[in-house]
Amino acid sequence: MSAGSVLVAGGTGYIGSFTTLALLEAGYKVVVADNLYNSSAEALNRIEAICGKKAEFVQLDVTNEADFDKVFEAHPDIDSVIHFAALKAVGESGEKPLDYYMVNVYGTINLLRSMVRHNVTNIVFSSSATVYGDATRFPNMIPIPEECPLGPTNPYGNTKFAVETAITDVINAQRNNAIKAGNEAEAKKWNGALLRYFNPAGAHPSGIMGEDPQGVPYNLLPLLAQVATGKREKLMVFGDDYASHDGTAIRDYIHILDLADGHLKALNYLRANNPGVRAWNLGTGKGSTVYEMIRAFSAAVGRDLPYEVAPRRAGDVLNLTANANRATKELGWTPTRTLEQACEDLWLWTKNNPQGYRQQPPAELLAKLKK
Amino acid sequence: MSAGSVLVAGGTGYIGSFTTLALLEAGYKVVVADNLYNSSAEALNRIEAICGKKAEFVQLDVTNEADFDKVFEAHPDIDSVIHFAALKAVGESGEKPLDYYMVNVYGTINLLRSMVRHNVTNIVFSSSATVYGDATRFPNMIPIPEECPLGPTNPYGNTKFAVETAITDVINAQRNNAIKAGNEAEAKKWNGALLRYFNPAGAHPSGIMGEDPQGVPYNLLPLLAQVATGKREKLMVFGDDYASHDGTAIRDYIHILDLADGHLKALNYLRANNPGVRAWNLGTGKGSTVYEMIRAFSAAVGRDLPYEVAPRRAGDVLNLTANANRATKELGWTPTRTLEQACEDLWLWTKNNPQGYRQQPPAELLAKLKK
């Protein structure tokens, strides 16, 4: 199957930019759409520096109904969308839920309506392990398989869940309506992937591309990176009395390059196999405790990083680890990067880009890429 | 507590119009907003003929962001909304899910945003027993209590579920944000009722007000009414091999006047008790089989109505009956009308208004009201 054109909505963000890179490297033409609310178009320059290919950029607001129409009209060769454009801070979603419903839910309704109008028939959706909620209520389902009943416990997760049902309902309707009209070929064209991630980690091994969060980061590794650079005094460890081997909570950290590869493989699978709507977990299946992460990142940095134990946070659970057997079996996807590599890549990115994308990377890193 | 002004969104529809009547009779000022897509403003004239009071009418599109703002700006005395404005055909929702996500989900996001902007702090939402999905998966939860895990099985139900989470998240956020700001009084003002109905039935005993569905009705009693008037040859009974005493499926039919009273009581409860968000089932707790309904409506009509048994429909379940103890205990709500009365009222309405609201009711019915 020949590679077509792909719209990556939210393509300048962390996972979006690495997926854009993976798509370009695989030969896809890519149009990136983003509102640049929490990201920088500079990511696209870094992508070009790495792979020598350029994604087209369109600034776009997902809550503006006409914006997607304009993109699809200008690019009739787009047949697929990878949809990252969303707000993603769990804590903020509790304070400003309507922003999350507007951008995440209504934004996706807009996208789907425009896709239907323009016959853009494949969608890969950036969902989240958050849709499982407190998966520890099903003790025989750890690591979590896709069959685990969903039950998000915060507004962010509720919006991801609502979008999963919207995509499922729309793809199913497009298929059923086509079948009723006797058009099996049309039915097969409509496909959706719901990708549920665990904890994305790491950066590009070149050191010129990584996560560039605005404001206070809310994930363990970016916080550790700030401790390493001195922006933050110490890491707070929330709870050391969990039932893990060292008392700290277990999460499933996945290298961003492996995660991006999962998106590419999901898109290829949709286009080649026409499965309709299907959910896949993207994780390593291997859990790491907070203390193990501190040790791993300290090793990459070359010195012990300070931390302090604080009480557990409400809503945190012992273990969130993916059963990713379905992705391995069906998509042929297996994460190949280690946690150590994620830590080394993150540290290379962090120490060389103290201002993130707001300053040019060191010339020697760019020079290495050209070899 | 003095009665304030209430916006009834979708107030010319079946349940909306009867709730408007109940509110006016209870002394509330009512503004009805509707797009008249599947209803008639004539309902408001009938309401006035019955209770001598008039609701103000505004034509409005819930998907138009500015429309709610205009209503709240024109009526600063509105402090509560009862929200019925939605598409409601389960079958159609499978064919046109995006219409359902736009009107039901995005429409409610618009409403909530406008409520927050204008400090309109109480919402009573017209949800549905559909949010429980196939409740027979929890055999010890029949009749269904509000604690039953939710799991809708069609796009209509998915949109009702998404709206329940949106209302819950927004009310909780308004409360938590106010508490963080030290304003307990402001926090208590934000309240939401999620009303999950079972099968609304019947009409006003005056015979001048009832359900006026456009197109093919999809509920048992309106279909039986069409058989009685000769518009339809016979009723199709889908499945007579269920595990009920006569083999047909069991549903919980609730008189529309009782249902409307439940909305009034829920609104009063929100205003008096400030519970935050709370779900209540509105049903009788008593199940009736399809055969029992045919007999009851045949008795009201005075002759046996023809029916034919067909295979079960996919997705139908044996028993959907409400456990409405919570509404009885907390709202002081107890349905008082019998199934026989619902059938008699429906037949009086049907035979006297063969064109629904598109023709004036018989003068003798209006004359009776004036006594």
TrEMBL record, chains A, B:
Catalyzed reaction equations: UDP-alpha-D-glucose = UDP-alpha-D-galactose
GO biological process, alphabetically ordered: galactose metabolic process
Documented EC number(s): 5.1.3.2
Pfam families: Epimerase
Keywords: Carbohydrate metabolism, Galactose metabolism, Isomerase, NAD
Gene3D superfamilies to which the protein is assigned, alphabetical: NAD(P)-binding Rossmann-like Domain, UDP-galactose 4-epimerase, domain 1
GO CC term (a single one): cytosol
GO molecular function, one term: UDP-glucose 4-epimerase activity
NAD-dependent epimerase/dehydratase domain ranges (all copies): 6-283
InterPro entries: Epimerase_deHydtase, NAD(P)-bd_dom_sf, UDP_G4E
Residue spans crossing the bilayer: none
Pathway stated in the Swiss-Prot or TrEMBL entry: Carbohydrate metabolism; galactose metabolism; Carbohydrate metabolism; hexose metabolism
Cofactor: NAD(+)
Principal EC category: isomerase
PANTHER family: UDP-GLUCOSE 4-EPIMERASE (PTHR43725:SF47)
Role according to the record: Mutarotase converts alpha-aldose to the beta-anomer. It is active on D-glucose, L-arabinose, D-xylose, D-galactose, maltose and lactose.
Quaternary state and interactors: Homodimer.
Entry's family note: Belongs to the NAD(P)-dependent epimerase/dehydratase family.
Protein name, per record: UDP-glucose 4-epimerase
